[in-house]
Every structure is written in structure tokens, then in C-alpha cells.
Design goal:
The chain is of the alpha/beta class and about 260 residues long. The protein has one domain: Rossmann fold, CATH 3.40.50. Helix content is about 45%, strand content about 15%. The longest helix is centred in the middle third of the chain and has 28 residues, at about 105-135. The two termini are about 30 Å apart.
Amino acid sequence: MNGLSGRVVIVTGGASGIGRAAAERLAGEGAAVAIVDRNEALAHELAGALRSRGARVLALPTDVSREDDVQRAVARTASELGGVHGLVTSAGIFDPGDMRLLADVELATFNHTLSINLTGTFLFVKHSLPHLLAAPVGAAGTRGAIVTVASTAGLRGHGFGSGYTASKGGVIALTRLVAYQYGEQGIRANCLCPGLTATPMTGGAYDDPARMKQVTRGIALRRIGQPDEVGNLACYLLSEDASYVNGQVIAADGGATVA
């Protein structure tokens, strides 16, 4: 992909799932990667593996809902890797307590989900923007790029997960706002909305063939996605190959939202 080699990209939730897939592809394309994750051991394990392949990598254990943590992670990235040119916000949770009718969801569950999925996205975008704006202008006239990760739940709802649905809808709206406010200054922001994807968050819920057949009936491709299929798309949106793509909300869902 054009324009990724030598760039510095922060990936939140970068130690597993979609974030890990994005981090691995970015490193393979020659980018320096800051792996932000609350799982310190997993972040360091991935960083070590990528360094063994010649990549420049930082492992940054971080609580994305805490502004002081976020500020430190962004500052360390800029200082130790040489700036910030891209951001992927894939850190996210689904709290089991959210799997209820809205009237039965505890406020603490709702707020906790928003603090990670939406506030965490806001904080990393907020504190990365000054560095993205300072990045050199690329061949296509743009500076930095942001890829947020929401969900098809934010597009149409899944019938459950009040906090999750609200948070992902908020990520979509926030991304479009950033694309409008900062586009003139050369910042692109796009939002990915994965459908069912085989990540640690699903906890192997679809390993059973009967269950898999049931959940894929509404997916045009009749299968769930793999993390690299979404991670690769995130990398494309960061690259100069997508230099005229801005403010878009892209469902990576095998066609689930076309019906």
C-alpha cells in the first residue's frame, strides 16, 4: 500500500482481534506501530514478535477511558517513534450486563461501555490531532489519517446492547464530524463498521457449526469475517491509496446490511 512505509500509527486495542490484524499489516508495510492495549502481556508479546521481523514498535499498556493514560501514550509515541501520522481506534468492549432489555441495563454498565468505546475514541482522536496536523503533507496533499472502528450495531442496531449500540452510533457520528472539521487541513477520517467477526470478544460463540449456520443466514457471504479482513481495510484507509476517501462509513459485514 502506498504511503505507509516510514509512517507512525497508533492502534488502540492493538494486541488482539481487529487491532492486532491492523498492527501486523501496518508493520508488514513498513510503518512504525504503537500498540495500545489494556492487556500489557499481550501487547508486549505482539511487540516482540513484530520487532523480530524488523519492525519499529512500542507496546503501551493503556486505559483508553483515562485522559492521563491517553496523553502519555500519544506523547510517548510521538517522542519515541517520531511523530504520529495515523490512528486506528479499535479498542472496544461488550459488557455482558448490556445483553438485556434497555430498562434492565444498569447505568454503570451503560456508562462503562461508553467510556471505552466512545470516550476512548474521542480521547485518542483529540490528543492525536495536534500531531496529525503537524505531519508532513503527502503526495496527495493530505497529512494524517484516522480510522475509527464502530460496528453494524451503530448502523441498524442488533436488537440488544443499549450501551454498545449507543457507543458505536456515537463513534460513527464523531468520525463524520472530524472529517468535516479537519478535512481542509489535510486530515482524513473514516469509520469501519464490522459485522460478525471472529475476534476474542466473541469468545468462540460461533465455533459450533449449528450456531454458525444460524447466525450466517442473514449474511450474503454466508460466513463471519476474520480480523485481517477488517484490519486490511483499516490499513488501506490509512494509506495514500485512499487519499480521496474521507468521512465515509464502511460496513465490513459480508453483505449483512444489504438485506
